[in-house]
Design goal:
- The chain has 251 residues and is an all-alpha fold.
- The protein has a single domain (52-250), classed as Up-down Bundle (Heme Oxygenase, Chain A), CATH 1.20.910.10.
- The protein has helices at 3-11, 44-51, 54-61, 66-92, 97-107, 113-123, 128-132, 138-153, 156-185, 193-196, 198-213, 219-250.
- Helix 2 runs parallel beside helix 12, helix 4 runs antiparallel to helix 5 and helix 4 runs antiparallel to helix 12 (219-250).
- The radius of gyration is 17 Å and the shape is globular.
């Protein structure tokens, strides 16, 4: 394991992979959806559409074209590149130091993760120049813009929930995608570390999200959190749809 992988391993405690059920197969021990006890709507059907989107089931089945993987890598690079700004803005917008401390603690396990995404792209034949000059597709830009909109105009619990919901769903997806890339696409553990590292990131950030959201128990707060989670999931779904549609049109 190289220096960067060791750094990510240290920042998020002990790094290990665990076996997960195949995509499309429900697991009775599947993690609870983000903020489920707080939500005022049943968002589970929307969550399932994200977890079992064709982008991910295609990887699990080994049928997703490599070109689609390249499109995803470049588009996710756009989002990951914006993540530092989003996290910094979120922390700066918090009304007290305790909340700022918690959000900064969420950022620490993710530092340097973009290098792992570059490594994944290199395994797909992408150059650093292609990453540096990427232009966002409509779905990618829509998701990014939504995050900035929430940080500019949303309430404190909405700001926390919008980004947290996106992180939570991707952490669960990554647990399946990493091993599938190794099985079906001949990639090494180092090449898929961007995905497998999210398991330990989740162990760090999920308890913090719970502490953050526990402050907001009024019905109005819960409705705002629910709207933020729903919109976050809907825009993420649009992002995945755009990746798939673009890949088909290019083919």
């Amino acid at each position: 394991m190289d220096r960067e992988a060791r750094r990510v391993r240290r920042s998020s405690s002990v790094f290990r992979m665990v076996e997960r059920p195949a995509l499309g197969v429900r697991n009775e021990e599947e993690p609870m959806s983000f903020a489920k006890r707080i939500l005022t709507e049943d968002l589970e059907p929307l969550r399932q559409r994200l977890l079992f989107h064709p982008l991910w089931t295609g990887i699990e089945q080994g049928t997703l074209p490599r070109e689609t993987l390249r499109v995803f890598a470049l588009q996710d690079w756009w989002l990951v590149r914006e993540a530092y700004r989003l996290d910094a803005l979120a922390a700066a917008s918090m009304p007290d130091l305790d909340l700022q401390d918690l959000l900064l603690a969420k950022l620490l396990p993710k530092i340097g993760g973009y290098r792992l995404l570059l490594r994944f792209g290199e395994a797909l034949g992408l150059s650093r120049a292609e990453f540096d000059t990427v232009e966002p597709l409509a779905g990618c830009m829509a998701l990014t813009t939504f995050f900035y909109w929430v940080l500019a105009y949303g309430s404190v619990p909405e700001k926390i929930a919008a980004v947290g919901a996106s992180e939570d769903i991707f952490i669960q997806i990554c647990a399946r995608v990493g091993p599938a890339l190794m099985r079906h696409y001949g990639m090494s553990a180092e090449q898929v570390a961007f995905f497998t590292a999210h398991e330990e990131i989740g162990k760090q950030v999920s308890p913090i999200d719970a502490l953050l959201l526990a402050r907001y128990e009024t019905l109005e707060d819960r409705r705002r959190i629910t709207r933020a989670v729903r919109l976050s999931h809907e825009f993420e779904l649009l992002f995945y749809d755009t990746v798939m549609a673009t890949s088909r049109s290019e083919t």
